[in-house]
Amino acid sequence: MMNILLVDDHVLIRKGIALLLDHYDDVTVVGEASDGEEAIQLAYQLEPDVILMDISIPGGLDGFTAAKEIKEKLPHINIIFLTMHNEIAYIERAIELQADGYILKNSQGGVMYEAIYKVYHNERYFDVGLPDEQLDKLFKQKKKKGDVLSTREQEVLRLTILGYTNVQIADKLFISAKTVENHKANIMHKLELTSKAELIQYGITNGYID
């Protein structure tokens, strides 16, 4: 079952999305948030598999800011931006924040489900009307050390290189050992690495320790 958190300041939009997703037996809407602050709180509380996040939230914390914190603290949660903005600057920012998906509000319900299904199975889904070549170029442009890993992931990587265990890293960063494991798995996925030795080699080569 894919558990979904909806984030939009318009209650009618949230209810409409929930109604669309109710047609799918393997999707459950576990929570709704009206702004970014509430989204962060519910992300910690519910730990959904996927968050459908609006970007523009007048009067509340915006979707980009909320996504940044969630991705840094709970990187195993997939985030799909669901927005009316298809300008390139918004798409670039979503990529910088390691968003897993990006779809437009005028998309059909089937597109929404496909996006959820894809990111749940560790595939990105950007349905933004751009040619695949241009979209791939945007991703490649952002594949730099500071963009690929969040600040917390960089801390975990650095301590791993220095030989700390998951429990020791958890104590140093005031997080759980399980969260450390999730960070490491996310790092390996982002960097397309398959072993701890490769991870350590990457960290040393890319200057994560002095």
Automatic annotation (TrEMBL):
Stored Pfam families: GerE (PF00196), Response_reg (PF00072)
Gene3D superfamilies reported for this sequence: 3.40.50.2300
InterPro entries, alphabetized: CheY-like_superfamily (IPR011006), NreC/VraR/RcsB-like_REC (IPR058245), Sig_transdc_resp-reg_C-effctor (IPR016032), Sig_transdc_resp-reg_receiver (IPR001789), Tscrpt_reg_LuxR_C (IPR000792), WalR-like (IPR039420)
Top-level taxon: Bacteria
GO molecular function: DNA binding
Ranges where the Response regulatory domain occurs: 3-120
Residues annotated with 4-aspartylphosphate modification: 54
Domain HTH luxR-type: 142-207
Keywords attached to this entry: DNA-binding, Phosphoprotein, Transcription, Transcription regulation
GO biological process assignments: phosphorelay signal transduction system; regulation of DNA-templated transcription
Name of this protein: DNA-binding response regulator
Species whose genome carries this gene: Caryophanon latum
UniProt lineage: Bacteria, Bacillati, Bacillota, Bacilli, Bacillales
